[in-house]
Amino acid sequence: MSRLDSMRRRLTAQIDGLNWAAEQITGLAGDVLELGLGNGRTYDHLRENLPGRRIRVIDRVLQPHPSCIPPAADFMQGEAEDMLAALAAEGAVMALAHYDFGYGDKARDVAEGAKLSPLIVPLMVPGGLVVSQQPLVGIEQISGPDTIDPERYLFYRAS
Prior knowledge:
22% strand, alpha/beta, globular, seven-stranded mixed sheet, 7 strands
């Protein structure tokens, strides 16, 4: 598979997974957490599909497309550990989180997911969902939509 085909497959899985998760959290109270803003494509998709939800965003740098800059009150710039701790301290609760951090090195990405998981899990409302490209720990993995290869995107439900 070419890198271009792989990218299309990843983006299709991401869209399908986020749309599925948005439907699943209907009726749950809580905000949305975007872990990794990047150029803002996913943030833009979330705000379009979840217009009644506050979307909190964490990233080390703010460099999205100009149309995808979150409101200053919703963007937390810095290291994820510190920002997740700050959200917990303010009592933030999430119905949906999208974990999109990555260095492009599988071992390093898996280690970071394991390190951040214990900071994400307490933010989630019971029944809340985490959609992730990386494996997480301490949260129940569930099956996502049938259209997505289970190794392409991972889905978790908070208890």
